[in-house]
Design brief:
- The chain is about 30% helix and about 30% strand.
- The protein has helices at about 10-20, 30-45, 60-65, 80-90, 125-140, 160-170; strands at about 50-55, 70-75, 95-100, 110-120, 140-150, 175-185, 185-194.
- It is α/β, with parallel strands linked by helices.
- Helix 5 (about 125-140) packs across helix 6 (about 160-170).
- It contains 6 helices and 7 strands; from the N terminus they run ααβαβαββαβαββ.
- Helix 3 (about 60-65) links the parallel strand 1 and strand 2.
- The protein is globular and about 40 Å long.
Length: about 190
């Protein structure tokens, strides 16, 4: 099934993208992406983490960088091809586990002291994202951080704008805002589990 024959946010569409191109959004080569990764890690304020969770890890570029701030990183993607690429990218990194999983399915068991939602929230409806977010918060340790970063543009592939994603996350029970940043083209927010 081609991307054009299915909804662009469906698991089949993501698998088709990664099967056709191992880096469909230029995560490995884009100056924008390097800037975004730097801003995400900087927003954590140099804090070290025991267990981090990264849903929607794509080909593992951010996953590899998260491994420098966390002892263990559990990452997953809905696309088997993306997960295989991420495993290859992170093969030499100790403490990184990558699986195939849909973010709408139950979350891997916590507790996690860091959950990262990067460029993934806008592929869901507000209702879906609220349920997903509630599940993620339930797996977040007290004092743990939820880090989110999303592009501020518009795309036919997205069901929500980046600001709408962060508004849903901002409304989740049990979180308090810690950091809010706007950068050229994207935003980064950090919340802490109360």
């Amino acid at each position: 099934m081609s991307v054009n024959q299915t909804r662009p946010w469906s698991p089949a569409a993501f698998e088709a993208r990664f099967a056709a191109d191992p880096d469909p959004w230029s995560f490995r080569t884009s100056a924008y992406e390097r800037s975004r990764y730097s801003a995400l890690l900087s927003a954590l304020g140099g804090r070290r983490f025991e267990r981090a969770l990264e849903p929607g890890c794509a080909n593992g570029e951010l996953t590899a960088q998260l491994a420098t701030t966390a002892e263990r990183v559990i990452a997953f993607d809905v696309s088997p091809t993306a997960a295989a690429l991420a495993r290859e990218r992170c093969a030499a990194l100790a403490g990184v586990t990558i699986d195939v999983r849909d973010l709408r399915d139950p979350c891997p068991p916590g507790p996690f002291d860091l959950v990262v939602l990067s460029e993934v929230g806008y592929y869901f409806t507000s209702r879906e994202l609220d349920a997903i977010g509630g599940g993620l918060v339930a797996q977040l340790a007290p004092g743990g951080a939820l880090l989110a970063g999303h592009w501020q543009g518009r795309s036919a592939d997205h069901r929500l704008h980046g600001d709408e994603v962060h508004a849903v996350l901002d409304g989740l029970d049990g979180l308090r805002p810690r950091r809010r940043e706007r950068h050229p083209g994207f935003r980064v927010d950090v919340w802490e589990r109360a």
